[in-house]
Amino acid sequence: MLIIADNLNVRNADYVNKLKKKDWKAVEAMAKELAVRGADVINVQVSTDGMGDEDVLLPAAEAVQQGAGLPLCLDSRNSKALRKTVPVCKEPPIINYLSGDEKNPNEMLSLVRETKSNLVIRALKGTVPMTLEAKLMIIEDLIEKANAADVPNERLFADPSVVHISKGMGQEHLLNAHESIVVLNAMADPPLNTVIWLSNVTTGLPKKLKSVVASAYLSYLAGAGLHAALVNVKDEEVMRTVYLIKSFQDEVIFAPAEIE
Question: Could you tell me which of 53, 52, 104, 90 has the C-alpha nearest to residue 75?
Fold first, then answer.
């Protein structure tokens, strides 16, 4: 399972403060810690809506890459910012994300094709769909668009859009996400990858419950064949679960000391 650190996001006040001050050495240090904590890839987010990304995403990505020495996941829908930033990546990044809301998907898809980047395609159109069928309909449409733009399945990460368990139809959404992963693994030919943003599951929960709920859900999705997850790599309980999943999948050699 590919572990993408989600720690450098705009909900992280310390990180946002470093961005505002353009303290790139401090961002480097934050990224280095995430690498030490077990990240395989680091997600870089500098806004929620893409506004101003063309000024900040590039230096932030350079700092993260310098500090961690890891591949990047560029969390932006701002195509101008992405076109400036992707060329500085030492290896093709993951671009996070393209959804059913995108009015001009060809702009993003042409960038992905030209740079041989990877792309998250997200089951989102206005709101997160409530049913398995609706999630799959959006993802299937995005797969078709990507393939038509010569972006192969092997470079796609399908995100069924998990939501927090504690409100509304949360439990049903989480079940649908699990079923989406099962179906996508069976139906996509050639195979594609699947990914979820784990922290979304625990939004609104008391802090003392977040780690145990996140860890249990990650294990549940691993059993469905999940390929990648955006996680808080500074959460020791979650990373213990990650280590066990990787052990069970024969990606690492199990050692009891690693989970003590």
Answer: 53
Q: Per-block average pLDDT, block size 10, for the chain (260 residues)?
A: 98 97 98 98 95 96 98 96 96 97 94 97 93 95 97 98 85 92 93 96 94 97 98 98 96 89
Distance, first Cα to last Cα, the chain: 21
* Dist. CA 241–CA 216, nearest whole Å: 8
The partner residues of 99 in beta bridges, in order of sequence, read 122
The helix-helix angle for 24-36 and 13-21 (nearest 10°) equals 140
Q: State pTM to two decimals.
A: 0.96
Interatomic CA distance for residues 208 and 204, integer angstroms:
11
Note the pLDDT of residue 50.
87
Distance between CA atoms of residues 5 and 23, nearest Å = 20
Q: Structural domain boundaries of the chain?
A: 2-259
Q: What single-letter DSSP state applies at residue 234?
A: T
Helix extents (H) in 92-131: 105-115
Query: Superfamily assignment of 2-259 in CATH?
Result: Dihydropteroate synthase-like (3.20.20.20)
